[in-house]
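We emphasize that the prediction below concerns an isolated chain of 324 residues; any contacts that depend on oligomerization or on bound cofactors are therefore not represented. The input was used exactly as deposited, without trimming of termini.
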Amino acid sequence: MKIGNITFGEYPLFLAPMEDVTDPSFRYICKEFGADMMYTEFVSSDALVRNVTKSLQKLQIYDYERPVGIQIYGHIPEAMVEAAKMAEASHPDVIDINFGCPVDKIAKRGAGSGMMRYPDKMVEITEMVVKAVHTPVTVKTRLGWDDKSLIIVELAERLQDAGIAALTIHGRTRCQMYKGEADWTLIGEVKKNPRMKIPIIGNGDITDGLSARNAFDKYGVDAVMIGRATYGHPWIFKEIKHYLTTGEEMPPLTVKEKVELAKKHYAKSLEVKGERRGMFEMRRHLSNYFKALPNFKETRMKLVTEPDPIAVMKLLDYISETWG
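Result of the prediction step, given as a token string:
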């Protein structure tokens, strides 16, 4: 499978772009565990053209992450074109357009999956962005706005004709948000459509090796994208690759191994973002690394409220000694 000049091996696994999750430190850890392609947190085109500092910081990528994409979103064509040019200046391997985010504050103003109600405008924006940059442009979207408007099969053809290099499809409608099971049937229809020549990446409910195997074998996708299942579980890429290669599940990480991983992740977050912000933004990750431990509530609260990095490291040692 190829996207632009990027060649992937068999059964590629992609890390989904997720707001407040796929920051540089998390991407660093996921890359170590075998993520084949990663994306930044999505970036507002409106904020980029206004030079909002937090949004500009999301354009920061590192060579060790490659291949890596920058994802932008918005509903104003001119702002999307300008944002794509700004993203291209950071030299990503792809520029991805988010037509899939379902949250109200984005979708209800016509951005993200809100664009599913305006497919002509979606195609127009895509075509304008493709023409404005030299970097390969990809799209991530959903099946439709709701069950009465499942437009993805026709829409996929139109997006391909607009010039995109690959298409990621989340197997839910916007109205489903993240509820219920992802429907891969239409993803499979897009892939089987003889008109489609670009890679199709499937997304939704990929949680282990078996679900990934089913996506590749039953629906024929070229790659799978993993999102929420990576929360507190970045080694999922290694687990899935082990299963796809051997047909067997990889032994679970021990508590001591998770502690060492959490320390590495924590240190990387502080290195990239500085002590105050790096410590604060790591809390969501730390609370997920050890969520299955028994009688852990009190320690978890300390872990996500402790303001001193040295004390956090001591807490992690305590977790290793007590539960390891």
